[in-house]
Amino acid sequence: MNSTATRRFNKLSLSTLVAVYILVLAGGIVRSTGSGMGCPDWPKCFGQWVPPISVNELPPNYKEQYASYRHKKNITFSRYLSLIGLTETSQKILEDKSITVEADFNPFKTIVEYLNRLAGVIIGFMIIALFVASWNIRKTSPKLFIGSLLALLLVIIQGWFGSIVVSTNLTTWTITVHMFLALIIIAILVWLSVRSGAYSIVKSDGIKRWVVLGIVVLMIQIFLGTQVRETLDVLALTFARSEWIPNAGVDFIFHRTFSWIVILISVIVWIKLRKTSAEKSLIVVPFVLVLCSVLTGAVMAYFAVPSVLQPVHLLLAVVTFGWLFQVYLQLNNR
Fold this sequence. Notes:
The protein is mainly α. It has two domains: 1-198, no CATH class; 199-334. It is built from ten helices and two strands; from the N terminus they run H-H-H-H-H-H-E-H-H-H-H-E. It has a two-stranded parallel ribbon. Helix 1 packs antiparallel against helix 4 (107-135), helix 1 packs antiparallel against helix 10 and helix 7 (208-235) runs antiparallel to helix 10. It is globular, with a radius of gyration of 21 Å.
């Protein structure tokens, strides 16, 4: 496991993990700036590899053209949903007229979304390079090869599902699925980096179950956060930003209240890890990330959800998930 090829694989897996975190931040910026439909088609942007910067570069009927394009794609997607038993969801997509409403061209939003897609393409190539690197060590480290293959397959699925997010005009549940697919990819990359690296293994003495509980409550909190985001998306259509939180209802209350459970479990994990031989980063970093995530959430709640903090809040939650999963992998029950 300490061969030159394995060390190169480890460096590449870490680099790819960091790149995915950057992509999560970019995706959060896309959401906070409302740029998700800056490019109405996929993988091209307005039918071009280099996006237009002026509406004059588009045909007069571009709205009808791309609305029709997305509707045809949604018909195909709806068939897939029906095949797996989600007939009601399938019908909602086909009957929701708002999905086919095309937004006015906005050069800023187009560039933001295009840069987000470029970042996704770069990560796609990095995942391919990771798979190629795993091929060179497949005989000595078959699990790394299988993990890299799984990561590659999930990135392909993620790319395809990203096109569905666009074709359904950012339907809220598709964005949530898109994000949780990203969490799975992050978990695989963390596993690959730990498995291929010379990381210290810590005797857990029962801590592992608390770390698992921490991961579970964090994922629940992330899901509750997606519900708040969906509510805010609806409120944004009719309310000023300063009125979002007062009208967010039970979704926000649940999310805010559950943060105390996340803090409590994090404190318990922090206290227990301090009694072990774990390296300082494993003890301190996840706890600090949780506190920063809660702090940014509080600032958004009391200061009218500043758009600059939305992607930061999301990134902190996702990085916390990655760190906690690494802690779990480095704990040993023996």
